[in-house]
Amino acid sequence: MRRIQVTEQLWDVNDLASFCCEKQNAASNQVFHAVRGYFFLAMYIWCVTYIVVMSNKLESPSDVQRWLQAKAANLWPAALGSLSLRRTRCIRKNCRACQSGEKHPSWVLSGHIQGKRFSLYVPEALVPEVQHCLDNGRALQELLFASAVRYVKALKHAPTSSNP
Ligand SMILES: [Zn+2]
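Above: inputs. Below: predicted complex with zinc ion.
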């Protein structure tokens, strides 16, 4: 905090120095050079502080593990799949719903498991619950993508890393 305040004060003095420089007298040039020196010193301190703070923020692989477990704990029930409303014809003759084109709506959950397609009837009463489950599944998927980036970064900075 103290360093930031010093930088702000130096900015004010720097503005003043620029103003004085416009008058182009020897005294103001001296002030300008002194202020410029302090300005670069302040920038150097700020950069060092930034690097120290950022290096402390780097995660370890176990930090990423704890983060993922904490986030994923709130995402149950979770599933991947596609919930859709289908309209199918029935086998009854002279069915009004089928003749009108309305047909018979039903909710179906579909997806793939190891390359094989599955399709499952979902009673209408369960649709909100299944939809919530699928929303969690997508959130979990996003979480795993984020985990990929964080984990690889953590591995790169881990002290035991075999990177050259
Ligand atoms: Zn029908």
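The pocket of zinc ion is lined by residues 89-90, 92, 95, 97-98, 104 (CB under 6 Å).
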